[in-house]
Amino acid sequence: MIRVGVNGYGTIGKRVADAVAAQPDMELVGVTKTSPNYGAEGAVRRGYDLYAAIDDRVDEFEAAGLGVAGTLADLLDAVDVVVDCCPSGVGERNRPTYEAHDVPAIYQGGEDADIADASFNARGSYEAARGAGSLRVVSCNTTGLSRLLAPLDETYGVEKARVTLVRRGGDPSETDRGPINDVVPDPTTVPSHHGPDVNEILPDVDVDTAALRAPVTAMHTHSVNVTLDEEPSTEAVRDLLGGESRVFLIPEGAGIDGAGALKDYAADVGRPRGDLWENCVWEESISVEGRDLYLFQNVHQEADVVPENVDAIRALATDASRAESVARTDESLGVGL
Ligand code: NAD
Fold first, then answer.
1. Are the C-beta atoms of 130 and 194 separated by less than 8 Å?
2. Overall pTM > 0.90
3. pLDDT one-digit tens code per residue, 179-192
4. Do 281 and 164 share a structural domain?
5. d(Cα 121, Cα 143) in Å, to the nearest integer?
6. Is the domain of 100 the same as that of 163?
7. In a shared domain, residues 238 and 191
8. For residue 92, which phi and psi values (nearest 5 degrees)?
């Protein structure tokens, strides 16, 4: 059993904790919280051991009726791997602590690429990540693009990818985010940083990205144009993407016309928190004109990196191959719609 701790129990951390707890070869030792808020109560309700992220706050948890099993240092002493799910930049501050405890760490996409030995996406860089002492699971957008571009490049060769990312303004629980009445280029410079981040996973794929922020919370939307080396038929590309376990082809005729319906569908089929772990590609949007492929895909920013974190743990701590790890993760979570 791989003993895992999750440091930072927010949007990503609570989902990673649930996913780790669902793995037959992993044990979730505990999660940390900075304060005894509703998230801490939720962790206790799920039966997870709670650790105080900040040493002198143990009394605050006790006063709120939430007993803690110890502090972050105690958690680090009890685990084989720590998954850092703290806000962007906090992971960098935590790194010396993990190193002092000699615990391999997995960081998230909000950190700079150089925080870890390698950046990670199971589809794009599982084998390349072997032997690393630490990994960084790339962001939700980079995860979605890597899953799409890896099979296209392997099968047809990618001459150039151009992607416009319409990003959600904030997560549903982030009441202080925006915009609320505009669509803003973010950054205003083009290309955006997302393309170079894809190159941390797929170094040889030429990809330019431009990004905007929109007043929505459910999902990101990508408008994709890929110039391929070959001229496959539209049907062949549909079959290729349909064969990827972490790509969901939204069927024509399903009546799913946007993120709202996608999330409704996820809830209807019983997904925890209405999570969509897969890239969601509109099947009828897949269109090949000569060597140019066009499509729309949606990415559920709160969820798509979750199975990737599970595979990153195996890449770091076991000899499991990519195929073994992905199959195990997908089966235990129910990935694949
Ligand atoms: P979040 O704010 O929802 O959760 C972070 C949690 O860490 C909060 O509970 C916060 O209280 C806690 N925390 C803060 N300081 C801490 C500390 N010193 N020690 C322990 N816990 C601490 O953030 P998030 O959205 O889950 O993002 C976490 C990471 O995942 C970031 O790097 C982010 O860029 C990345 N990420 C986020 C998304 C997304 O859309 N939410 C998607 C992919 C990747």
1. no
2. yes
3. 999 999 999 999 99
4. yes
5. 6
6. no
7. yes
8. -60, -40
- Say which CATH number the domain at 111 has: 3.40.50.720
Active-site residue, 140 included = yes
Q: Tell me, in angstroms, the distance from the centre of ligand 1 to residue 85's CA.
A: 5
User: Which residue's CA is the nearest one to ligand 1's atom 34?
Assistant: 110
Kindly give the number of the ligand 1 atom that is closest to the alpha carbon of 94. Answer: 18
What domain count does the chain have? Answer: 2
Rg (CA), the chain: 20
| Domain match, 260 and 183 both | yes
The residue-averaged pLDDT of 170-184 equals 96
23 three-state secondary structure: coil
DSSP annotation of 55 reads G
Q: Do 145 and 118 share a structural domain?
A: no
What does the alpha-carbon distance between residue 94 and residue 179 come to, in Å, rounded to a whole number?
A: 31
Same domain, 174 and 120: no
Q: Which atom of ligand 1 is nearest to the CA of 173?
A: 3
Residue-number span of the structural domain to which 63 is assigned = 2-138+305-333
pLDDT of residue 131: 84
- The CA distance from 138 to 87, in Å, is 14
Residues 134 and 9 in one domain: yes
Ligand 1 site, residue 171, Cβ cutoff 6 A: yes
Residues 205 and 131 reside in one and the same domain: no
Whose Cα sits closest to atom 8 in ligand 1? Answer: 10
| Ligand 1: centre distance to CA 86 (Å) | 4
